[in-house]
Amino acid sequence: MARVKLGACDWALPGNGLYATRIAHDVGLQALSLRIGLKENDYPLTRSTMQRIYLDEQQRWGIEYVAVALNDFDNIPMHASPGGEDYETVWRLLAKAPSTAKALDASIVQVPAFGASAITNEEEMERAAAALHHLCREAGELGLSVASENTLSPEDFKELHERVESDNFYLYFDSQNYYLNHGWDEVEILASLYPLMCDQLHVKDGAGHLSGSLLGEGDAGLFDTMAWLDRHDYRGYVLLENYYDVWPLRAVMDDPYDILRRDVEILKDTVAKWRK
């Protein structure tokens, strides 16, 4: 494959990802990460009917599906305590995720650790590692990988990685989250954790806000991050995660699709300068 392929997270596209495959095609992207959905909607991407629709759209528009994101873990704790109200839901979702990714030919199950799933103490670290270890085992049997997106310090992520103890477990890097949440230098995070990264990452930007700016116009040092990736011969997928119809980014232009097109141009121009 080409050194890098460009894509987006379906949940970030205008219209909250409705017709994401067509939108990605129309703006010149190559790949999508798909959210598995919410408990209240019965995790729609796990259903064969919905999978057939997505696969039909893939054939029609030629877009790769590269990850399935367990986005409901923002709302329910992946490290739920046994016997707690969310424990059964968490483990039911963990059981469905690998087969869902496999059905859509996605290589990674992406596990966010924000909101309800943020790891803030030893007990949560222990339970999260156990859940991720189980998920890695199930995903590995299908030839898939698991990647955790989080804002743990490099030391804490390395500890989590050791506890998960699975060859198919990786970090899912994001170009703004570390700076926005902790003020940490994104390049320093990369330098410390790059060997543990998967071959996908999210890019977004903002100035004091999550996804509040076009790429490179925020304060997270996006172009420094991209230059570091170039120097270290990053190969894989770069996925947009700016939220194009949400304030404050929506104020940049009248039409959120124009904002998306501009970000695609910026991203393409950036990687076009990379060494071959």
Quick tags:
single chain, 276 residues, alpha/beta, 39% helix, globular
Secondary-structure map with pairings?
Elements: E1 4-9, H1 20-26, E2 31-35, H2 48-61, E3 64-69, H3 87-103, E4 108-112, H4 122-140, E5 145-149, H5 154-164, E6 169-174, H6 177-182, H7 186-193, E7 197-203, H8 222-231, E8 236-240, H9 256-272
Helix pairs in contact: 3-4, 4-5
Describe this structure in words.
The chain has helices at 20-26, 48-61, 87-103, 122-140, 154-164, 177-182, 186-193, 222-231, 256-272; strands at residues 4-9, 31-35, 64-69, 108-112, 145-149, 169-174, 197-203, 236-240. The two termini are 12 Å apart. It has 276 residues and is α/β, with parallel strands linked by helices.
Tell me how many strands there are.
8
Globally, the shape reads globular
What count of helical segments does DSSP give?
9
Q: Roughly how many Å apart are the termini?
A: 12 Å
- Low-pLDDT sequence parts: none
Compute the CA-based radius of gyration. 18 Å
Provide the spatial order of strands within the biggest beta sheet: 1-2-3-4-5-6-7-8
Helix content: 25-40%
Order of helices and strands: EHEHEHEHEHEHHEHEH
Largest sheet features: 8 strands, parallel, barrel
User: Roughly what fraction of the amino acids lie in strands?
Assistant: 15-25%
Give a brief description.
This protein is α/β, with parallel strands linked by helices and 276 residues long. 39% of the residues lie in helices and 16% in strands.
